Recover the amino acids of this structure.
């Protein structure tokens, strides 16, 4: 099986297309990510970002 | 709902905190020592203390011991609180802690002994590699165990960074550790030449990404809001930051190999993704800094916030500089110089160091239920550290650019203006200034050591900190149209798988074609395997860490081909396990050392190894007189030949039986050459093997002027 794939891969000429493919993959990934993040609900976001503080009083002293 | 009572384990946090302080001091002390060696070569004391062996000790100590323990300190503290649960198993926590410290001790012993794989940041020998794998699994097991038994439904952004760190470091470590042992301690890389280089910098770059960056971003997302007492600036931005960062980082490795013999398409891939990396990186930096919105006035008084602001700013500077250095025109100047050294130290001293200190000052008083002993001392530490970074980085930037320009300078007659040695001696004052910066930074660490010692004395460790939370409801009914990210945020294993897929996409597209497609590494018919003596010599070269100062990769620039000869081709390295291209030219390139204008007599090399400054006045290279006394390890020749053959090097069957015979014949020839130059030395000495290796470098190509490239 591996040999078969290897032989097949050895015959690929247009290896230059790899960078284009990768750019395309990332671009689509990023757009999908952006759309989903855009659709998040505000209260939910607030709740999530408060996770480190649950059950704690916010005070002004850090030391 | 019934509230459950449980206890956070603070003892393990304390242990890792102490370890990060201790190893931080050790690693930085080693750094200061080797920095001084470049000014005073006499400080290379014995073979165990030479620059080539101590530099890997410095880098490994800072990355895996200082930052490594810093990661675990932060993870064990924040993970428990974010999951509202004690760590999954105290036993696993302890195995993790002691296992990691043992690995560090093993590294600190083996590296000065010259036991090294010769690949940057992956120098540790195979038994230690195995131990790292086991301990890393223990860490992951403990972390996932905790996440699974958590009482908080959602995984906060910091935890995603921890998960991505765990899974990616595992993948990187396993792939980089591909090697075939030829003895109980040593091995040869599975990969060779260009492929080894690609694997190495895919690993090396992502070690920076997933060991020095993503876990620390997780710490930033937890500790910065805690210290500033306000939630992170934008949670949405943190989602985008996380996914784009881990997706992009994994592709960027080839920017370490621009203008080398790496196939062009892979270089372009590295450049494009490196430039894109600036966006998620700066997204993260902005998210960190804007967390301080409305609290900037407190930065003036609160030393913890000061440390964190400088850390995040240094992260911003380093991640702006990284993409710039990946542009080919900038890289042409910066590569092989001290510019890169400055760049990584802004990251290590600024980002990792300052964030670690901030977290330590925040966390120690809390787990000891006390106040920090002295805010004033902490403030002094802050200023010493900040000035130390500047005193370190500025001379190195200056030196790097200056040296590169000197390397490239031609006279009006069209000849190189400076010899390599002239550019080295020019660097000395800069190296001295850099040591001053390092000293300031280290003094700051000692002050912190004292401050924390005093703090601990006034308090008492709350080993088991009481907490309460309602258990998590197991049956959760999915709302229709629920946000996808909310779903995977609840499911750590699925989350890990998605992160794994995201990082594998880049890795596969980058690595597979180079391995599978023959046209990527054109073979050169005149390139032959090393003779047994040269092979032994090469292993000595690897043992002494020569690659930390000498490159073996001539880039296709006139300034380099004039100085060193024909530029390097991918096909020249097919038998190089590991590849030794190097990343820094503290000394000159050696790719054509045995040929052309660079060729020197055996006697020259002998005298140079014995006392470099006797042949090159002002040289800062360590002396290697011990190689004249030590005998070549001929007992290993057969197993080395066998291992190489198993890895595809075409030594004939049965060759191992008379390899030592050939080795002695060649060694005798070198001995006779030396005798004619008035040097008496037995043929079986290490220096003879190393001379043979030096004389071999570049010869394959010069043997074949017409250089047929066979597809």
């Amino acid at each position: 099986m591996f040999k078969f794939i290897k032989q097949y891969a050895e015959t690929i000429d247009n290896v230059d297309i790899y960078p284009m493919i990768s750019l395309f993959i990332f671009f689509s990934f990023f757009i999908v990510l952006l759309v989903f993040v855009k659709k998040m609900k505000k209260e939910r976001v607030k709740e999530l970002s408060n996770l480190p503080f649950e059950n704690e009083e916010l005070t002004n002293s850090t030391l | 709902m019934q509230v459950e009572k449980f206890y956070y384990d603070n003892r393990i946090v304390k242990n890792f905190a102490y370890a990060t302080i201790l190893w931080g001091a050790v690693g930085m002390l080693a750094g200061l020592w080797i920095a001084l060696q470049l000014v005073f070569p006499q400080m290379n004391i014995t073979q165990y203390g030479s620059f080539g062996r101590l530099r890997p000790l410095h880098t490994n100590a800072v990355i895996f011991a200082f930052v490594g323990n810093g990661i675990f300190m932060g993870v064990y503290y924040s993970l428990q609180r974010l999951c509202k649960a004690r760590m999954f198993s105290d036993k696993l926590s302890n195995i993790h802690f002691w296992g990691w410290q043992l690995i560090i001790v093993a590294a600190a012993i083996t590296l000065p002994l010259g036991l090294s794989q010769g690949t940057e940041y992956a120098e540790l020998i195979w038994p230690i590699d195995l131990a790292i794998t086991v301990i890393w699994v223990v860490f992951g097991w403990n972390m996932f165990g905790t996440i699974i038994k958590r009482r908080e439904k959602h995984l906060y952004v910091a935890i995603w960074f921890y998960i991505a760190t765990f899974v990616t470091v595992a993948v990187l470590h396993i792939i980089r550790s591909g090697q075939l042992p030829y003895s109980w301690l040593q091995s040869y890389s599975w990969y060779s030449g260009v492929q080894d280089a690609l694997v190495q910098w895919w690993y090396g770059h992502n070690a920076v990404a997933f060991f020095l960056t993503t876990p620390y971003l997780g710490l930033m997302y937890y500790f910065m809001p805690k210290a500033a007492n306000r939630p992170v600036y934008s949670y949405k931005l943190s989602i985008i930051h996380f996914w784009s960062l881990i997706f992009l980082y994994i592709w960027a490795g080839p920017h370490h190999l621009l203008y080398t013999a790496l196939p062009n398409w892979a270089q372009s891939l590295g450049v494009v993704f490196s430039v894109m990396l600036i966006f998620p990186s700066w997204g993260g930096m902005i998210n960190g800094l804007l967390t301080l919105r409305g609290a900037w006035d407190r930065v003036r008084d609160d030393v913890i916030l000061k440390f964190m602001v400088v850390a995040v700013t240094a992260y911003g500077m380093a991640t702006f500089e990284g993409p710039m250095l990946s542009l080919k025109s900038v890289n042409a100047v910066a590569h092989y110089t001290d510019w890169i050294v400055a760049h990584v130290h802004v990251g290590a001293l600024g980002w990792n160091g300052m964030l670690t200190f901030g977290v330590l000052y925040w966390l120690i008083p809390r787990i000891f239920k006390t106040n920090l002993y002295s805010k004033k001392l902490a403030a002094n530490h802050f200023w010493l550290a900040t000035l130390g970074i500047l005193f370190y980085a500025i001379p190195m930037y200056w030196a790097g650019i200056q040296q590169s320009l000197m390397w490239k300078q031609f006279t009006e007659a069209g000849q190189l203006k400076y010899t390599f040695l002239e550019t080295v001696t020019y660097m000395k004052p800069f190296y001295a200034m850099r040591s001053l910066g390092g000293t300031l930074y280290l003094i700051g660490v000692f002050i912190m050591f004292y401050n924390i010692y005093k703090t601990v004395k006034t308090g008492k460790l709350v080993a088991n900190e009481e907490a309460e939370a309602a258990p998590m409801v197991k049956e959760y009914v999915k709302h229709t149209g629920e946000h996808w990210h909310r779903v995977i945020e609840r499911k750590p294993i699925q989350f890990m798988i998605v992160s794994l897929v995201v990082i594998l996409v880049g890795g596969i597209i980058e690595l597979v074609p180079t391995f599978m497609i023959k046209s990527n590494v054109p073979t050169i018919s005149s390139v032959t395997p090393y003779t047994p003596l040269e092979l032994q010599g090469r292993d000595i070269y690897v043992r002494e860490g020569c690659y930390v100062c000498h490159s073996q990769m001539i880039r296709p620039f006139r300034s380099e081909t004039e100085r060193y000869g024909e530029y390097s081709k991918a096909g020249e390295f097919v038998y190089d396990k590991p590849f030794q291209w190097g990343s820094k030219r503290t000394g000159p390139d050696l790719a054509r050392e045995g040929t052309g204008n660079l060729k020197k007599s055996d006697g020259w090399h002998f005298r140079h190894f014995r006392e470099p400054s006797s042949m090159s006045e002002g040289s800062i290279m360590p002396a290697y007189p011990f190689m004249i006394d030590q005998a070549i390890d001929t007992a290993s020749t057969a197993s080395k030949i066998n291992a190489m053959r198993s890895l595809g090097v075409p030594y004939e069957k049965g060759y191992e039986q008379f390899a030592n015979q050939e080795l002695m014949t060649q060694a005798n020839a070198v001995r006779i050459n030396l005798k004619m130059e008035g040097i008496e030395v037995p043929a079986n000495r290490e220096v003879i093997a190393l001379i043979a290796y030096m004389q071999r470098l570049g010869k394959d190509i010069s043997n074949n002027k017409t250089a047929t490239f066979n597809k």
In short: The two ends of chain B are 71 Å apart (CA to CA). Chain B touches chain A through 62 residues (CB under 8 Å). Residues 253 and 361 of chain B are 34 Å apart (CA to CA). DSSP finds 26 helices and six strands in chain B.
